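Q&A FORM
Asked by: J.P.
Topic: structure of Cell division protein FtsL

PROVIDED:
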Amino acid sequence: MLILAPLLVIALVICVYKFISIQVEIAQKNEELAKLTAQVAEVENENKMLSRYSDEQYKVEYIETIARDKLGYAKPEERIYYIVPAD
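REPLIED BY: S.T.
REPLY: Here is the structure written out as tokens.
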């Protein structure tokens, strides 16, 4: 009986430690899943936009969007304003 009690306590401690470590791992995996789900949604939205521009009628609009957003171009009658923070 004296030998059995410490063995049970040791087994209990090991079980509690394993349980806590598994819970921590589950929390980490859930966080990783949330990040990956957000990335998937972002890529799916981008794919929808790009598939829309793959149609012949939207190619000019796509080229204009890229020219404005990425290259900073504007049409001759347009003006581009940059908002500079007060800091």
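FOLLOW-UP: The helical segments are 4-53, 59-69.
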